[in-house]
Amino acid sequence: MKTREDYNCPLELTHDMIRGKWKPIILWQLGKGSSSLIDLQKSIHGIGQKMLIEHLKELQEFGMVDKNQFEGYPLRVEYFLTLRGRRMLDVINAMQQIGIELMVEDGKNEILREKGLL
Amino acid sequence: MKTREDYNCPLELTHDMIRGKWKPIILWQLGKGSSSLIDLQKSIHGIGQKMLIEHLKELQEFGMVDKNQFEGYPLRVEYFLTLRGRRMLDVINAMQQIGIELMVEDGKNEILREKGLL
DNA sequence: CAGCATCCGATCTGATACTG
DNA sequence: CAGTATCAGATCGGATGCTG
């Protein structure tokens, strides 16, 4: 599998780092604060456990996310953004901003307000 | 197929707009100036004609790219970024910038210099 | 030169069931 | 609660040949 060091095109590298249906929204959520797996899943509408874990794993491989594991039962982990993950929020925020503008053009202000984005 | 008006999440909307292996680099190239199909293909290393046309079509559907058709033979078209496409360059540039930083961390300055990115 | 049709393997996604 | 395994359908990507 392709790792970070294999890339010779910066745009391709970054694009691959956020590729996949759920990566941007996961980064966005973690940008709001560390989170357990279950809370992350609850906060991302529609995502399944498999996809969540799989995408988290890839985000970790690219050094954008890390986790703390706590001992004892019930099991508990805490996922959080690394410095590099925070850096990627520049891109995520820009994406979010453009999406908001387009949705406003489409008269979706109400939906955005419900989500606290407007 | 999902069109722009179907989205209720701004991040998902923008992410889908640049989804696919070649979309960011196509936008990047067109950001440097209008281009014919063949010149676009020549400037994007590794892309095939099918993928190029397919991705251009999707970029057009999302209103980021448009084209002029000229009469006569040989056929000639000119693809260019719309205002909305230019707006998306904010995201593309942010992606490019992060990618460059990561490649510098990996000691790939030489490759970047060859491409005129450093 | 610009663009379409077809075919096929690779990859992605999601549902379900299971383990520690 | 956190994480793994399996399987099937959908989508993506690329090679090739053809049309105007």
Question: Which value, in Å, is the CA radius of gyration of chain A?
Answer: 16 Å
What best-fitting shape of chain A do the alpha-carbon axes yield?
globular
Main beta sheet strand tally, sense and closure of chain A: 2 strands, antiparallel
User: What's the total number of strands of chain A?
Assistant: 2
Helical content of chain A (DSSP H or I, runs of 4+): 55-70%
Sequence stretches where pLDDT stays below 50 over 5 or more residues of chain A: none
Oligomeric description of these chains? homodimer
Percent of sequence in beta strands of chain A: 5-15%
> Largest chain-chain contact?
A-B, 38 and 38 residues
Strand line-up in the sheet with most strands of chain A: 1-2
Q: Give, in order, the helices and strands of chain A.
A: HHHHEEHH
The span between the termini of chain A is 40 Å
Mean pLDDT of chain A: 96
How many helical stretches of chain A? 6
Give the structural class of chain A. mainly alpha
Report on this model:
By secondary structure, chain A is mostly helical. Chain A is built from 6 helices and 2 strands, in the order ααααββαα. Chain A has helices spanning 10-17, 23-31, 37-43, 49-61, 83-105, 109-114, and strands at 65-70, 76-81. Chain A has a two-stranded antiparallel sheet with strand order 1-2. In chain A, a hairpin with a 5-residue loop joins strand 1 and strand 2 (76-81). In chain A, helix 2 crosses helix 5 (83-105). The longest helix of chain A has 23 residues, at 83-105. Chain A is globular and about 50 Å long. In chain A, 32% of the residues are buried. The mean pLDDT of chain A is 96. The interface between A and B is large, with 38 and 38 residues. Chain B binds a DNA duplex (20 and 20 nucleotides) through helix 4.
